[in-house]
Amino acid sequence: MNLSQKLSRYADRLTYELLPSETVHAVKRHFIDTLGCALGAYDSEPASIARSVAGTVSSALPATVIGAGLSSSPEMAAFANGVAFRYLDYNDTYLSKEPAHPSDNFAAVLAIAEPMGRTGKELIVAAVLAYEIQCRLCDAASIRARGWDHVTYGSFSTSLAAGKLLHLNEEQLTHAQAIAAVSHNALRQTRVGTLSHWKGCAFANVSRNGVFAAMLARHGMTGPSDIFEGEMGFWRQISGPFNLSLPDPPAPPFKIQDVCIKFYPAEYHSQSAIDAALLLRPQIGSIEAIEKITISTFRAAAEIIGSEPAKWHPTTRETADHSLPYCVAVALKEGRVTLDSFDAAHLNDPVLRELTQKIAVEVDSALDARYPEGIPNRLRIRLRNGQVLEKEVTFPKGHARNPLTDEEIEEKFRRLAAPVLSEERIAMVLKRCWNLENETDLSGLLALLTVENV
How confident is residue 46, by pLDDT bands cut at 50, 70 and 90? Predict the structure, then answer.
């Protein structure tokens, strides 16, 4: 068997009965968190654009566009919902050779589960599958250094999850993977320099393509053979060869339980640096007392959010929430990092700009050796009076080793949903999500997310 066939066999054999209760509960936590991120992003420009385009499409298999009170085709609903899930940079993160945001996969899962009339249990299985495939691929090889965006791995996870919900057999699942993967490899330019709207749309596009590939395979479309191993396949062109093992039959532990949920709306590698800044802030007094700040970090953080000139001069929200120096500067200046921390007023704040210029980022080999088990960031702040303050954080709030409580996840959801849903509606959504395994009407659940005048 080649690798795509092994992935297909794993997908085919994964059942709800194989999932421990803690895995089922983890899906509910990440599902609630992801829906909250979508509601928080409802008024954003990219989400509005995606909804507008999705609204031009009708389908014999209507799928809900979250918040909008409208339906579209499954693939366009996957795109619109995926943009909303990702835009705020507040959804979950997996740390490995290639970091990723596995909750992006919920866009493809919902786009098929709802119109096909699948149950909450089937949604849970598909979500576990998508997380498992994407995370194991991220464990196998990094692709960003070769010029490819991390969302490229989503071609496999989304096509398999959608195919699982379409009840494809192993052969059809293999074709779905091949169709998605041969056609939709994303350039890393998405996350280089000044970042655009597309930063939050890249995986949404992968979800759209994964759903489309699975639907084609369902109707008999075949895809290229040996998508990983072939002469012009994934290993030769994208990732390089790697080993990936899967338990056969599927067995715990499942990767979703290793995925982190964000406490701050910023790129995940900055989370521990933000924590360190907030812990040091009471000792500083006025930020005018700061002479210099040095952030010692691991290589992945430096490469992704601390190495380009644009990170010190962000002009877009997308660049700012992917800027290690900016995130630390705003935490020190305001004592918090919230959704408002990346608005135009903050980006144009001369005091914040000046503070950002005082920050240097360096790679520390000792810290690098501790990644990805943790995300160690150390701040060293030299004050004008000669005093030096230092703080290191490895497992920030929300990390798998320092997880948010269920209550904290609910609070995050309520905070994000409050501008667009009533308290009564929020309570109804949470109740149904915490009982997701008993859900038989996903359309009804998603209808509760329609934005109200509150």
Answer: very high
Strand, coil or helix: 268: helix
User: Locate tokens 């970090």: which residue?
Assistant: 297
What the block records as the tokens of 360 is: 């240097």
- Residue where the block lists tokens 């791995």: 153
pLDDT band at 380 (very low <50, low <70, confident <90, very high): very high
The count of other CB atoms within 10 Å of the CB of residue 127 is 30
**CB within 8 A of 344, min separation 6: which ones?**
none
Exposed e or buried b for every residue in 221-242, given b needs 16+ CB within 10 A? eebbebbbebeebbbeebbeee
β-bridge pairing 388-393 and 377-383: antiparallel
Q: What backbone phi and psi angles, to 5 degrees, belong to 253?
A: -75, 155
Give per-residue pLDDT as tens, 157-171: 999 999 999 999 999
- Measured between alpha carbons, how far is 252 from 23 in angstroms, rounded to an integer? 9
Question: With bands split at pLDDT 50, 70 and 90, how would you rate the model's confidence at 92?
Answer: very high
CA dist 185 and 207 (Å) reads: 12
Q: What is the dihedral of CA 226, 228, 234, 237, to 10 degrees?
A: -80
Structural domains of the chain sorted by starting position, each given as residue range(s) with its CATH number in brackets: 3-258 (1.10.4100.10), 268-393 (3.30.1330.120)
- Report residue 245's pLDDT band, with 50, 70 and 90 as the boundaries: confident
**Helical (H) or strand (E) element with 293:** strand 290-297
